[in-house]
Amino acid sequence: MRHTHISINQTALTHNLAVIKRHAPHASVMAMVKANAYGHGLAHCLPALMDADAFGVASFDEALRVHEICGHLSKRIILMGGVLDKDEWFDAQTHGFECVIHCQTQLDWALSHLVPMGSPTGTIWLKYNTGMNRLGFGDDVLTAAKLLDNKGYRLILISHFACADDKDHPTNALQIKRFNDVLTILKDKYGNDIQGSLCNSAGIINFPHAHHDWVRTGIALYGASPVMGSDIHELNLLPAMNFSTQIFAIHELNAGETVSYGGVWMANKPTRIGVLSVGYGDGYPRTQNDAKVLITKDDGAYLAPIVGRIAMDMMMIDITNLPVGVGDMVMLWGDGLPADNVARWANTISYELFCKTTNRPHRRIIV
Ligand SMILES: *Cc1c(COP(=O)(O)O)cnc(C)c1O
């Protein structure tokens, strides 16, 4: 068996949720579990996130899976993209899923197919485009709100930051102002029980005055940094995913010999190479620059550089002069080596690394 593992640390997930709750003590917290809990696996994550007030998913089929796993524990489930056709609108009501409404077509379904009073689906998350320019109503959000309020729906105004990770980006202040202005108008017109939800993980940390009634946290739950310039240790977050493998072969190179496909890496001195049983087929990014792995031994921890092209099943590291050998465990990202570092080496973001892990590594839970 290949000793390549993705371990999900439930204690870390629960800890991270508690950290976020301390950042937003007056808001309800929606745990974002779309894309199979950012690649971590819904079944392994949901039990550790039961302190969340709701779960956020992208689509109806994702909501169904969350619903199945939560079973009798009734949890609010919100479809961030709303429904895609009229049948889904009915199905969402049957299951008690709450919908975002971001466009006229969805608005028409809600207005012409009312839900019973008091049903959870009587809550509409009305999407207002404050600057992301992806989904949502513009100024016509006021008309949409009026029509929905007339039909008896409860409203939560929702919007999404484009640049919240970069605290000083000018778009943030603009989005916060637009959001506050419309929410104030809606409360004046239709009552103070209209709620608001603006912040993702980065917004929760960077803009404590913009939390409103609901915050939506994703990446922070999984223990990667949502904000530029702060690492997870400063933020008191713990990695939820440990992606690890082992050295399963070693060989010695003479100066002038190359490693792996294309022969693009050449030893400039006698070099000891460790072969790892992991590659892009497991979700490790094939393209990266100066990436390293972490090998922890009783007498210390060693960073070893990846050398040569990463293959589907294997990759090679330079272990010259390191006291390591066949069978030693190697951390790709997780405890001791944050996914944020690997993301930088791979010129991407932690979100993408997590989502692109495959089902090939053996998945297990740490409690
Ligand atoms: C995914 C998502 C979030 C969570 O974002 P993070 O940066 O992972 O905290 C929040 N809101 C919406 C609408 C999302 O799609």
Automatic annotation (TrEMBL):
The lineage of its organism: Bacteria, Pseudomonadati, Pseudomonadota, Gammaproteobacteria, Moraxellales. Its EC number is 5.1.1.1. Substrate binds at residues 134, 312. It is an enzyme of class 5 (isomerase). The gene is alr. HAMAP family: Ala_racemase. It catalyses: L-alanine = D-alanine. Coiled coil: none annotated. Its cofactor is pyridoxal 5'-phosphate. It holds the Pfam family Ala_racemase_N. Pathway: Amino-acid biosynthesis; D-alanine biosynthesis; D-alanine from L-alanine: step 1/1. It comes from Moraxella nonliquefaciens. SMART domains: Ala_racemase_C. This is Alanine racemase. Keywords: Isomerase, Pyridoxal phosphate. Catalyzes the interconversion of L-alanine and D-alanine. May also act on other amino acids.
